[in-house]
Design the sequence.
């Protein structure tokens, strides 16, 4: 008896009424997308407030579970056996077959938890629990019942058909991608920005990304690393359009014209301006960064305020209050860490001053940026127009 189906549980908070359909449609779509990468053929069905994945061919349970664990909106994955309702005697023998196949010979405590969505069923939930519990005890003498903390909880859901499952594998939670608009992630090769993108996508936001590249100061390998990171985030967020902006001329111009201790902050302001322009063109409603208060000189509250000043769009900074270790923990869990720590230069570190300003004075910054008026508008325009787009999936 192979568990050929999966019951998908999702958190129902905030998914009432009309929202519920939007949420469920998006979830079904994302599940189908995730299963495309899995060997085998599957159908995803929505049936009276439940979502089922049924395998229509041979498949590896592990691969299906791994794919579903990346779909935001999935609260839990329950591998299950679905049987026709052919009477209680038949149910008893199916339950015994299930216990033998799935839980084998071991000795453990269990409990039967029956639910009747079909109220016409001739037995009450209590009767089903008791009678199924008894046959299991008779067939497997090593087992015992524990109604409070059973090691195995056998769920028996009586609907038009009957679902049997005893394993509840946690999903990633969150909201299905596609239910909450679109935002532009500033994706560097570091640890923080992939985590930031993951966190916002988890709330249902479609993400695109922009990477500032400074050839020949930053290598092709540095760029490939960012493409790799975008692909890793795309496992959860769905395909990501990555816009690669050539930032070299702008950086050199700032380096020439402005005080070196203000370089980082002025550069970051131009990154935000360019990212916002591309975001508008791409119908994004917000920007996302991996900034965290106090992590480096460009992330003091004063620096963040100075960087934030140049954009009108909301900037989402989901790791703003996290310690580095907390961000590292997430990046390890989602699988971006190993790629993030590959040692390739970042454009921010190449032109960095020995003693960058930590508390930038916004009037001084304005004054310094005044020295760029001759060429900067054209340079920004060129940078936006020559951006190269790579689809990462
Ligand atoms: P990360 O680990 O994300 O690189 P960081 O700790 O290195 O962050 P900074 O280099 O100050 O921090 O960058 C802060 C944020 O600015 C990044 O999280 C990212 O969102 C954005 N950013 C920095 N450099 C780039 C870049 N070259 N291209 C795109 N975005 C960038
Ligand atoms: Mg960085």
Sequence:
């Amino acid at each position: 008896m192979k568990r050929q189906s999966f019951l998908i549980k999702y958190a129902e908070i905030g998914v009432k009424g009309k929202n519920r359909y939007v949420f469920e449609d998006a979830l079904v779509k994302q599940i189908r997308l995730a299963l495309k990468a899995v060997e085998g053929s599957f159908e995803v069905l929505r049936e009276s407030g439940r979502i089922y994945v049924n395998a229509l061919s041979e498949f590896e349970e592990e691969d299906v579970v791994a794919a579903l664990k990346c779909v935001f909106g999935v609260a839990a994955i329950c591998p299950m056996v679905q049987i026709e309702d052919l009477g209680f005697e038949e149910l008893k023998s199916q339950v015994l077959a299930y216990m033998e196949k799935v839980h084998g010979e071991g000795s453990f405590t269990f409990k039967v938890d029956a639910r009747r969505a079909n109220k016409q069923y001739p037995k009450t939930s209590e009767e089903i629990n008791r009678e199924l519990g008894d046959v299991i005890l008779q067939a497997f003498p090593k087992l015992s019942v524990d109604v409070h903390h059973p090691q195995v909880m056998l769920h028996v859901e009586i609907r038009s058909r009957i679902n049997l499952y005893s394993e509840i594998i946690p999903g990633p939670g969150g909201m299905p991608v596609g239910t909450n608009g679109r935002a532009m992630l500033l994706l560097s090769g570091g640890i923080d920005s992939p985590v930031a993108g993951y966190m916002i996508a988890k709330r249902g936001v479609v993400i695109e990304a922009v990477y500032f590249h400074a050839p020949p100061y930053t290598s092709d390998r540095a760029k490939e690393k960012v493409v790799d990171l975008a692909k890793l985030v795309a496992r959860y967020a769905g395909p990501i359009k990555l816009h690669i902006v050539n930032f070299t001329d702008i950086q050199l111009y700032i380096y020439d014209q402005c005080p070196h201790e203000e370089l980082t902050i002025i550069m970051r302001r131009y990154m935000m301006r360019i990212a916002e322009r591309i975001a508008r063109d791409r119908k994004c409603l917000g920007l996302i960064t991996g900034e965290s208060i106090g992590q480096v000189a460009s992330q003091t509250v004063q620096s963040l305020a100075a960087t934030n000043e140049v954009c009108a769009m909301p900037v989402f900074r989901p790791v703003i209050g996290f310690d580095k270790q907390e961000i590292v923990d997430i990046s390890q869990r989602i699988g971006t860490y190993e790629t993030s720590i590959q040692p390739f230069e970042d454009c921010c570190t190449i032109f960095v001053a020995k003693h960058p300003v930590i508390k930038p004075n916004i009037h001084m910054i304005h004054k310094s940026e005044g020295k760029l008026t001759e060429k900067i508008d054209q340079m920004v325009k060129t940078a936006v127009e020559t951006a190269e787009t790579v689809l990462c999936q």
